[in-house]
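The protein record now logged underneath.
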Amino acid sequence: MRTLVLVCILLWGRIACAGSLDRLDQVDLVELNPNTSQLQLLVLLEEDRVNTRQAVKALYKKFNNYQDFIESGQALAAAPNASKTLRPVVVVLAPKDATSGEMQNLAGLKLAASKVGAEVEIRPHALGVRAKPVAIERSAKKNGA
């Protein structure tokens, strides 16, 4: 019986600790800049490593989903007090012990975003920042309906 309880606790912990790149259809955290009221959509990279091709691909997919969240109006609905004149910014918090290669991958995302008129900020890992996920609703148009 103890083994079963331990296994259940371990499985629950694994599910609860899923990384940001396992939750592509969720915004990890929505905040307002306290000085400008600019909407900030945070990506909290809780993964140990984001240096694989699969992780980078997932990061770009998550970024594209954040852009859909902004363009569909869901972002302003999630934070009605946000500035309507300042475009929302996607803020990526780097993994705790990010390597120089991982930081280059994040810089690549920032460059790619600038080419489509989006703003991305890369910040170092921040202790104590916790996700408060907001689901990204898919519109009928996006789903092909």
About this structure: The beta strands are 26-27, 29-32, 39-44, 89-93, 120-123, 134-135.
